[in-house]
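for the record, two folds in this file. i put them one after another cuz i was lazy. first one right below, seq on top, structure tokens after. the second one comes after a little note so u can tell where it starts
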Amino acid sequence: MSGLEPVMTVILRRLAEEGPLSSLDLEDDRRTEGWWDPEGRAGTRAVRQALEWLWHFGRVAISHRRGGRRYFDLVERMWGEVAAPEPFEAGPPPGDREAEWQAYVKRVVPKYVRAMGLANPRAPHFGWVETSAAERLTLAERLVEEGEAVWVEVEGGEGRGASLYLAPAAEVDDLVRAEEWDPEPVLAFLPPLDNLVWDRERLADLFGFDYGWEAYVPPARRRYGPYTCPVLRGDRFVARVDARLDRGRGGAVLVVNGVWWEPGTRALERELAEGLDRWAAQLGCLSVETVG
């Protein structure tokens, strides 16, 4: 971690003594270089990168924001006691980019698999490391060999063959028990970048649901809307809703631009309307208006 361990220790002490702080409150203009910087350019403030690592490792969390600035605090102050953290390990010498990258992969990729639940080694973002398809497969096989993960075969949707995913080895029993789980049929409006939906291939394999975020798609080519939200009911996607907040009429209104149903789900219209009312209430809206 480019010698950031002492900086992280100072940050944790100051947070404990002073409460939530932003990177600008930590007056230290030292710069650091790592794999995240272009070759030969150390442009990142050490305290900013140290905060990112602490957040990534679960030692700090975002307490609040002022404008676009994030303020961090200790997780135990925000959420109570947590498991004892792992001690910082000395990283490779600063400037040894290959050793630094390997150390990062060794620590972060297993955490990525645990966070994903079912991780797709075919995805370019696998492990949040820049790798080729062959390197991703090698990383996946290494995790299996080391007992960190197991292969899981998932039957694809219509026209798709079976696909292999990685599951955390420690959660295999939970995965088997989940086969008997019957979730309550509660409606949930998911944001376009929700963790469940942003791996589009996994989404299609597990749920047979084809979804794409169209914010950067030219308007003439959009099928739905730029911020269309998938609607999950229990363990099935039943619809998608394009909605927006209109604050310009004396009070916020949830404006529904369009609703698109999955096959065989149109009978849930009343349930969807009630769900939209609850969503609007949570957002502080006065009403729901459908225009599409």
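(here's the note) second protein begins now
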Amino acid sequence: MHATRRAFLAQAATLLAATAMPRPAAHSAATRDKAFDARTLRQALADAGVADARPDAAIRIEAPELADNPAAFPIQVESALPGTVALALFIDLNPFPYLARFNFYAGAAPFVGLKARIAESSQLRVVAFTPEGRNAATRQIHAAAGGCAADDAQPPDYPDPPPAIKMRARTESGGVDLRVLLTHPMENGLRKSAGGAPIPERFIQEFAMRVNGQPVLSAELGRSMSQNPLLAFRLARAAPGDRIELSWRDSAGARRTDEMRLT
């Protein structure tokens, strides 16, 4: 075979192998979506590539109308759109509107629960990604006070190693519901100490879940997540004895990984 032809075929094989590789469980810091740094909704939607999302009633949002605790506002979202591979959440008027993006792989239902910081009354916006495009739903939420900033906050401690990830599982007819607690201060850079000095931002940016070694879910988290994130997920296929691996990485490079088995 001619040398040039052999080189061409080798290059083509390499490209095919690269395109066939599965998406990693979580983005690296170098490829993190810049939309999380946007300070306006318009910029966040544009950077996230969802400015043209179409309204769709198949995206369900559960959240109280009034935030009793604007620093830990409970939200649950779910998509009934076929083929949903990701859900992105935005709080329109927050200092950093992009709240989080969750990517779902084989075995994970397009459902998530979390708690967020709410700066003021605003719209909560959820975008679902499907093979057919991007669809969105909104819900108005109200906050009597802001939960994103404070002027007399106490700078947090960051234990080394970080506290263990905690998980609780409950078997349902449609699979397994998981509750996951990530113990972390989640500083957003907007709080100040009693002396007026800014408290540096440091928050969990990446989260991933594997079942029996296979990726089922990954997430990018933003500065509007609450302290000690409490996350809810639903596994469509799971069984007692399955090995669950949970991991996170924060903006300072700290990491935590824990394994547990479903009972």
